[in-house]
Amino acid sequence: MALIKCSECGHEVSDKAEACPGCGAPISVMVKQQTAVPTEVQYIVDAEKFKGTMPLMVKLAMRAIQKCGWKIDQVNETLGLVTFQTGRSWGSWSGVLCSLNIEEVSPNTFCVSGTGKQNVAGGQLIALNIGGEAQEKAKRAIECMKELSMPPLWPINKS
Question: CA-CA distances (angstroms) from residue 104 to 28, 49, 91?
Fold first, then answer.
């Protein structure tokens, strides 16, 4: 059982109820509206969350990483994990290793967090994380996800 908001009066009502006790509106219609499966990802600025499905979120993360010109290492749709590496950085000629964690916080609502570390590879003994550069790369990928999922500010002429 889950509590949903009545679209007519705003009262919290059980999703198993037949009608809202406050106004009598049918609940089954509201449950269908609130649990409809999204067909695209949308970023909700006020909530700082994404609306979509896990497969759509993973595809969005992959598009964002590729748009930044970085290399995708691994993708795990079940866990909501996408790992990637960047090119050269200030702290390492091997670049930065990052991962994005996509967490479903409620049905079809997701939070994305990221981590990064300097890559020590190819005989390099030390890699410095100058100014938090590694974490900034993960943040940049998340910002790119937001940009890609926002509707355009002007109408697009499809002719």
Answer: 24, 10, 33
Q: Give the residue range(s) of CATH 3.30.310.80 domains in the chain.
A: 42-149
Which CA distances in Å does 43 have to 14, 20, 79, 150?
A: 27, 30, 20, 6
Pairing between β-strand 81-85 and β-strand 71-76 as defined by DSSP bridges: antiparallel
Tell me the pTM: 0.67
- The Cβ of residue 139 has, within 10 Å, a number of other Cβ atoms equal to 14
d(CA 71, CA 11): 48
The pLDDT profile of the chain, 159 residues, written as one tens digit per residue, is 677 778 788 888 887 888 888 888 887 766 655 556 678 999 999 999 999 999 999 999 999 999 999 999 999 999 999 999 887 654 444 577 889 999 999 888 999 999 888 765 555 445 455 556 778 889 999 999 999 998 765 555 555
- Does 42-149 carry CATH code 3.30.310.80? yes
